[in-house]
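Reading is simple: the token line describes the chain's fold. The lines below illustrate.

. . .
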Amino acid sequence: MDDNEFLPWTEKYRPKRLDEVAGQEEVIKTLSAFVKSKNMPNMLFAGPPGVGKTTATIALAHELYDGEVAGNFLELNASDERGIDIVRGKIKDFARSVAMGKNWFKLIFLDEADALTPDAQHALRRTMEVWSSSTRFILSCNYSSKIIEPIQSRTAIFRFLKLNEKDVRKSLEHVAKNEGLNVDEDAFNALFYISDGDMRKTINVLQGAAIHGKHITRELVYKISSRAEPKEVREMMELAISGKFLEARKKLDSLIISYGLSGEDVLLQMYREVDNLKIDEKKKVELVDKLGEYNFRLVEGANERIQIEALIAQLMLIGK
């Protein structure tokens, strides 16, 4: 039996080499140069989730150590082990050990480093200094502003961008071909809309849809991902703006029941449809302002159904 048969597709199809990583061409070019020179600085990878930060690091480690990854590469997730003890214990112990094989330095990868406490980050800064002769660090985070300045000044910062439609499409076609899937053109577009540049989310949705059969349709993609079709959200907003409040509320009921949307899901999709509404710019500004206000109310714990219906009422007032 193939060991990869029951892996999630995000792991099964994770690139093994740097030149296979989707998008991020400039970053990958620099990392490949580090592999060639067998030397590199400490690095900080910053960017949104699912754009290749972890994948690029693992591919870099495999190319650097060429089959001798064990003993030379330590991967930790800071969101699980976020206190000062992990820095003083596991990280420090690995940093002071001797590198194995041809490379003179070991590599420590700290994923989601923005989850580290400030005390842990200060301890990590000192560890990076003391063991700079034998260990290199790669930290990844979604928000570089949450990393203390002393660490930022000790690392080369690389910004990972959201993936474009071309890169997402290429990876999805590769997965679909290997899994024997027939993906409609509209389904590819729906997958990219849902992903918003997040490759991990896209492949997970595709795998979920594949459970229902080899033919992947747009409707199936939206059902699996608990997202409404953009045109239906836009229709609801247009009804409200045109003064048809009861019809808009009925459409909202349909969206929530059919797709299982939460209040924040509805808000997010409404926000993404603002540009597609045929109203003047001033009214779009008012609408975005209201969306921000009601999003804050939901985050603070207000009743989501009341707030979403109140927002629809605000759309009606904006349309007058």
